[in-house]
Amino acid sequence: MRVPEALAPWRPWLDWFDADVVDLLGDLLLRLHPMLGAFRMRALRGVAEPEGIDDLRRRGHYERLLLSEWALADEVPEEFDRRAAGGEHLFLSPKLVAREADALTVAVFDTGPGQLGAPRLVHVAMWILLAARARAAKARFAWGVLGAPGVLHPADAPERLKQLLQARSLTPGGPAAAAEGNAQAVREHCEREWRRALDEAEPSPGERWSIGAHAAGYGLGHRVDVSRTAEQQLAVTIASRQARRELRLNLPAPERSSALLRGEFERVEVARLSGVQTGSHGQGKLSLKQPPLISCGGRYLAVPLAGESAANVYRLPSTEATRLPAPKTTRWGKGKSLLGATLTGRHFAGVIPQTQWLEGWQFDGMGRLPLPPPGDLDVTTGKARLLPCVWFNPGNGYRCLWLLSSQRKLLSWVRHRHDDIVYEVVADQVLAIASSDAERMFYLRHGDGHLHLHSVSLDQVLDRVAFQGQANAAFLCGTQCGMGWPGGFCVEQIVGGHGGERSSIWRVFVRLAERPPSEYEIVLQADWKVVGLGQPDGGDIGLIALRPDRKALVRIGAQGRSVLYESPSPISTVSVAVDADLIALVDLQGRLVVLRDGARKMLVYTGGDDG
Fold first, then answer.
1. How far apart are CA 505 and CA 546, in angstroms?
2. CA 427 to CA 404: how far, in whole Å?
3. Where are the beta strands (DSSP E) in 13-78?
4. Are 524 and 508 in contact, with CB atoms under 8 Å apart?
C-alpha cells in the first residue's frame, strides 16, 4: 500500500493496517514524533571505522576519483586539468560508522483502568515510533507491561501489537494490585522491579520509557503521561531529565478507532487495497528463478512454471477492468529445456537446444536453426536467466530471430521466404537488446571506448557516448521514434570499496524529447540489485532496484529515492518493461505482482505456497 511521503519512516508498520487506520495513526505519528527528542546512545570509544561508500565529494584522495573523471584525462585532458584546478573533481567518500555499545530500547506500558479507551491510541503510536526509532539506530526494541516486571516482548509482527492491546486490566498494576488493595503502592513497586530488571539486563537498555497514567518523576528514564482533559481531547506530556514537552491531541470519532483498539486491524487480503485486482494462477507454481517476460507495449506477460516445461501467459487487462482473465498455459515438450525465450505478441516462444541444431519453438518457419560454434553460444540450459530473444515476422516473407548470448554476442538467424536459414554474428560486446514493436529492434554495444546504441531497422547508430572501463551490466528504457530515441540507458561499473567491499557506479544517460541530453551517476553498495530502468508517469528516468533485504522495490533517480512497492515476502525475481510503465515481480511465496502507472496501480495474481 502506498502511504504519504511524510509517513514513509513508519511504512513497515503502517502496512499492517487498512487505509482508514493509516490516516488515523498518521496524524498521531506526525504530532508525537517531534516530541521524542534526540536518540541517546553511547558509542564505543575510538575512531569511526569506514563501512562502504557514503557519498560523492569535491575533495578526496585521487585513489578514490570517479572512473568517469579519469576518462576525461584520456579523452579531454584540458578539461581534466581545468576541473582539477577549479576543485570540480568528484571523489568517492567512505561511510564512517562508530560502533554502538547500546543495542536495546525498552518501553513499559501501563495497561490499567486509567489508560482504557482513547489513551491506548497513544500507546499504539508510541509503540510504532519507538520501534522505528530503534531500527533507525540499529538497536533492538522490546516492550512490556507494568504489571509483569522483567517480561519483555519483541515488536516484530502485528500479533505483538495485538498482544499489547489485549493486555488491558481493570487495576493499574494488574491482578496483584487488586489483591493488595493499594494501586499506587503496587505501581511504585512494579516500577522498582522493572528498574532492577533492566539494570541487570544484558545489554542494559540505552533508552527506557514509561508510558501510561500521570505519575511523579521520570519513570524508568522517559515518562509519557497520557490523560483526558476533555471529552474529545487527550493531554500528552513527555518528560525526562533533559526536557519536558506537552501536547494536546483531538480524538477521532469512536467508530474510526474502535476496531483498532479491539485489535481488529491486520490487513490480510491484498485485494482490499485501492486499485488492486486479484486472480488465480491456474495450474502450477511460478518459477522463482526466471524473471517474468513482458511483451512489447506491456500487453502480455509470461512466467515459466517451476519444475515444468511450461509457462503461464497472462493478458493484462485495461486499467478500467474489474477482473482478470485466467492465464493460458503453454508447454514446449516434456524433458525439453529452454535456452532463450520471448513473447511474440500473445504467444510464448523460445529456443531449445538439440544435439546438432537448435529448435526455434513457436517461431514460424524457423524450426531448425544452425547450431553456432561454442565460442558464440553456450548451449547449457538451466541457467539463472533465459537468454533474451527478439523475433521479427512482418509478413512479407522475411523472418529474423535475434538472441543475445552469455558471451555478449548478438546472434541472428535470417530466412527470406523459402530460402535456407542464414546464421551470423551481428555484433560483439553487446550489453542489452530490446524491441519496441514487430519491426523495430535496438541494442546497446560497448566498444572503442564508447557506448553505441544501434537501431537494426534503420541500420544506424542512434547514440554514441564516451565510456571508459569495463561495463558489467546495462538496461534500456524507451522506444525508437522516427530517427530518434526518446528514452535512456544505463551501464554499471564495478569499483573496489574499503575492506574489500565492492560498490557499483551506475551511469544513467537520459535522451528525452524536447530536452537536451543529460547524464548522472549513482553509487550503490554491492548488496543493492538494479533490475531495470524506468520512467514512471513520463517523469525523469531512474534506476529500479531491489533493497538489500529484497522486500522493497526502489526508484533511484537524479533527485533522490522513492519506494515503489514493499512486499510482505522477499522478492525473488523482477522484470521492468522497456517501452511501458510496467514492472512485474514474483516473491518467494510464489505471488506474481504487476505494478503500473508509476506503481500506483497493482495487479496481484494470488497463488504459490500460500494458495
1. 16
2. 10
3. 49-57
4. no
**Burial (Cβ within 10 Å: 0-12, 13-18, ≥19) of residue 98:** middle
What's the farthest any 2 CA atoms get from each other in the chain? Answer: 100
Burial of 59 (0-12, 13-18, 19+ CB in 10 A): exposed
d(CA 58, CA 343): 47
pLDDT digits over 133-167, tens only?
998 888 899 999 998 999 999 998 888 999 999 88
The pLDDT tens digits of the residues spanning 451-476 come to 999 988 788 899 999 998 889 999 99
Residue 248, C-alpha cell as written in the block = 494536546
Instruction: Round to whole Å and give the CA distance between 475 and 177.
Output: 66
Q: What does the CA dihedral 2, 6, 10, 16 come to, rounded to 10 degrees?
A: -30
What's the CA gap between 358 and 352, in Å, rounded? Answer: 6
Dihedral sign for Cα 60, 64, 68, 73, please: positive
Quick check: helix, strand or coil at residue 448? coil
Strand order in the sheet with 300-304: 293-294, 300-304, 310-315, 328-331
Report if pTM > 0.85: no
Contacts of residue 326, Cβ cutoff 8 Å, sequence gap at least 6: 279, 280, 282
The contacts of residue 514 (CB under 8 Å, 6+ apart) are none
Q: Among residues 443, 510, 431, 420, which one has the least CA distance to residue 474?
A: 431
| Nearest by Cα to 187 from 219, 226, 144, 224 | 219
Nearest 10 degrees: CA dihedral of 341, 550, 576, 484?
-120
CA atoms of 95 and 497, how far apart (whole Å): 10
**C-alpha grid cell for residue 502?**
565492492
- In total, the chain counts a number of residues equal to 611
Q: Which residues pair with 311 in a beta bridge?
A: 304, 330
For the record, the C-alpha cell of 604 comes out as 496481484
Between strands 368-370 and 357-361, the pairing is antiparallel
Residue 203: cis peptide before it, omega within 30 degrees of 0: yes
CA distances from 2 to 544, 566, 572, 595 (A): 17, 9, 21, 12
Question: Per residue in 86-98, pLDDT tens?
Answer: 888 888 887 766 5
DSSP summary character for residue 420: P
